[in-house]
Structure formats: structure tokens, C-alpha cells
Amino acid sequence: MIDLENVSKSYDKGQPAVSHATLHVDKGEFVFVVGSSGSGKSTLIKLLLKELDATAGTIVVNGQKLNTMKRRQIAKYRRKLGVVFQDFRLLKDRNVYENVAFAQRVIGRPTRVIRKRVPEVLTEVGLAEKYKSPVTELSGGEQQRVAIARALVNRPDILLADEPTGNLDPQTALEIMKLLEEINDRGTTVLVVTHNKDVVNKLKKRVLTMRKGAIISDEQEGGYHYEA
Ligand SMILES: Nc1ncnc2c1ncn2[C@@H]1O[C@H](COP(=O)(O)OP(=O)(O)OP(=O)(O)O)[C@@H](O)[C@H]1O
């Protein structure tokens, strides 16, 4: 599902942000990516989204080789990936329903499909009853649920989350990570970048640890143990 072979990414002359990373993630896996600030986690996500190109090595996602992907194929490729960020990135002047429906409208889904799919996905994230609420009236945890619903609305194969609980209190953070776990249980491959030590130690998933761009450990049922 995700294959990196000896991947490096340098921004400039300095040390590479990602360095000789080799990684294989199977369909249906749940993977945490941890490591101190600047260790290359967000760069890894950007490489997977093809927002950045690797300077060396090969990346294959969903059977598609990113190195040689044509510019015109990128939008279609990204539709099969859901993405969630720390700062939610919602449309602040729209309600919950509109925030999720928007992702379907931009790809030209018919209105009748949108009317069926949006309530479905809002139910999956536990927000069905708040569909009319302006997003500015929601708690941080609820806003992240909207962002997760938007990420899932096109039924992606892979969900990428970059620090999804960074703005949330510990209890809400745990609830959001449990939601990601449920989404994974329903078959979506999930990769989560996080600094949330407690959650990583509690959920006992596969844990990749990065340091200075390199993947320095890869453990099944792993824990959060690196020196900052
Ligand atoms: N656009 C950029 N131009 C130049 N250097 C960059 C750029 N983005 C990131 N870097 C550098 O690449 C390295 C890895 O950064 P990256 O954002 O991937 O780390 P991170 O592990 O996600 O950090 P954090 O936990 O703070 O988000 C850092 O040294 C950073 O300064």
C-alpha cells in the first residue's frame, strides 16, 4: 500500500529532511510516526501527498509510482488519500454539512450522491446531529471530527494525519485517536504523525521513530521512546 525505498529529501544544501528511508505499510495497518521536532515527519507526509518530490529513492502508493507520476494525475491520486491536520483547516463561514459536502462538490459528485454520503460520514464520526452547526460554534474535538469526516467522504484507501491532536486536551485527544482506530478497524490504512506520548503508549500500534530524517526504529505494538 505504501512503499518507500531508500527515500531522501533535501530542501537545500543542509542535512536532508528525510534520509534513506525505507518503509513498507500494508493495507489495513495503523502506524504512528514519532520523533522530535524537525526529525522529518511532516516532510514524509508531504512526500506521500506528492506535495514534495523525493530527491532520491522511490515511493509507490496504491500501486502508483510517485516519482514518475504526471502532473495531471496528481489530483486524482490525492482523492484516494484523506488528510487531517493539527489546525483542522475548515471553512469557517460554513456549517458542518457544507464543510464536508464541499470536498464532494469540487470533484463534481452529483447532489443526490452528496445528500446520501455526507450524513453517512457524519454519523461515522459521531456528528450527525450537528450537521447544521456553524463550525465556529464547535469545540476543538468536534472541529477535528468534521475535518476527519471531510477526509473520509471520498472513501480514501489511506488516511494521513499530521499531529491531529496537537490542539486538543488529553481526553479529547484520546477520543480522536480512538476514532482514527475505529476508522482503521473498518479497513482504511491510517498513518498518524504525533507527539502525543500517552496515546501512543496506550494504543500499542506499530510505531516508527524518526531522528534527523532517518527511520531509527520500527516496532509492532511499539511505544513512544526517543530522546527529544
Ligand atoms: N520548506 C522548507 N524549506 C527548508 N527546510 C525545511 C522546509 N520544511 C522543513 N524543513 C526542514 O526539514 C527538517 C524536517 O522538518 P519537518 O517539518 O519534516 O519535521 P517534523 O518532524 O515534522 O517537525 P515537527 O514535529 O516540528 O512538525 C527540519 O530541519 C526543517 O527545518
Produce the secondary structure layout.
Layout: E1 2-9, E2 18-25, E3 30-34, H1 41-48, E4 56-61, E5 64-65, H2 74-79, E6 81-85, H3 96-105, H4 111-124, H5 140-152, E7 158-162, H6 170-185, E8 189-193, H7 197-203, E9 206-211, E10 214-219
Parallel strand pairs: 3-8, 3-9, 6-7, 7-8
Antiparallel strand pairs: 1-2, 1-4, 4-5, 9-10
Helix pairs in contact: 3-4, 3-5, 4-5, 5-6
The protein binds adenosine-5'-triphosphate.
Main attributes?
7 helices; 228 residues; single chain; alpha/beta; Rossmann fold; 2 domains; six-stranded mixed beta sheet; binds adenosine-5'-triphosphate; four-stranded antiparallel beta sheet; ABC_transpr_LolD-like
Describe this structure in words.
The protein is an alpha/beta fold. The protein is built from seven helices and ten strands. The chain has helices spanning 41-48, 74-79, 96-105, 111-124, 140-152, 170-185, 197-203, and strands spanning 2-9, 18-25, 30-34, 56-61, 64-65, 81-85, 158-162, 189-193, 206-211, 214-219. The protein has a six-stranded mixed sheet with strand order 6-7-8-3-9-10, sandwiched between helices. Strands 2-1-4-5 form a four-stranded antiparallel sheet, with helices on one face. A hairpin with an 8-residue loop joins strand 1 (2-9) and strand 2. The chain is globular and about 50 Å long. The relative contact order is 0.20. It binds adenosine-5'-triphosphate (ATP). Residues 11-12, 17, 35, 37-43 line the site of adenosine-5'-triphosphate (ATP). The site of adenosine-5'-triphosphate has 11 residues, from helix 1. Residues 2-228 form the ABC transporter domain. InterPro entries: AAA+_ATPase (IPR003593), ABC_transporter-like_ATP-bd (IPR003439), ABC_transporter-like_CS (IPR017871), ABC_transpr_LolD-like (IPR015854), Cell_div_FtsE (IPR005286), P-loop_NTPase (IPR027417). Pfam families: ABC_tran. It is found in: Cell membrane.
